[in-house]
Design goal:
Elements (H helix, E strand, L loop, with lengths): L11 E2 L4 E2 L24 H35 L11 E6 L5 E4 L9 E8 L5 E4 L2
Antiparallel strand pairs: 1-2, 3-4, 3-5, 5-6
């Protein structure tokens, strides 16, 4: 048996002539991490899945709402009107028998035309659909 010139607590590789404690996959000093088996808790996988699933549903819901807002805004802008709409005022979108649309200030209770909805112009240029 070859006698080492270093103490037992020193990790020295005789073949490579270097200190290689930092390369070892196991503890080499008294102050090192325990050599016990580490138990990995994977129960958080389910909670992560639930989080991403619910977040995806929220995003899909938000996307659908945004798409609906876009469709109504586009419909109002493509309709006929001969006035400059003011931000914050209520306007009513009507449909003629030939399927053309027009925007009016007249309340649907005042006459008998097919009303598609009540809208309000917002600062952003978006039309917000209001409840009749």
């Amino acid at each position: 048996m070859k006698k080492s010139k270093y103490a037992d607590n020193i990790v020295f590789n005789e073949e490579k002539q270097e200190f290689d404690a930092y390369k070892k996959k196991y503890p080499t000093t008294v102050g090192s991490q325990s050599f016990d088996e580490i138990k990995v808790d994977k129960s958080s996988v389910k909670s992560a899945h639930n989080y991403f699933s619910s977040r995806l549903n929220e995003i899909q819901s938000e996307y659908n709402k945004l798409l609906e807002e876009y469709k109504w805004t586009k419909l109002v802008y493509e309709s006929e009107y001969n006035f400059q709409p003011n931000v914050g005022h209520k306007y009513y979108l009507y449909q003629r028998d030939n399927k053309t649309l027009w925007l009016s200030l007249v309340d649907p209770k005042s006459w008998n035309h097919k009303c598609l909805g009540c809208f309000q112009l917002l600062n952003s240029g978006k039309w917000k659909k209001l409840n009749l």
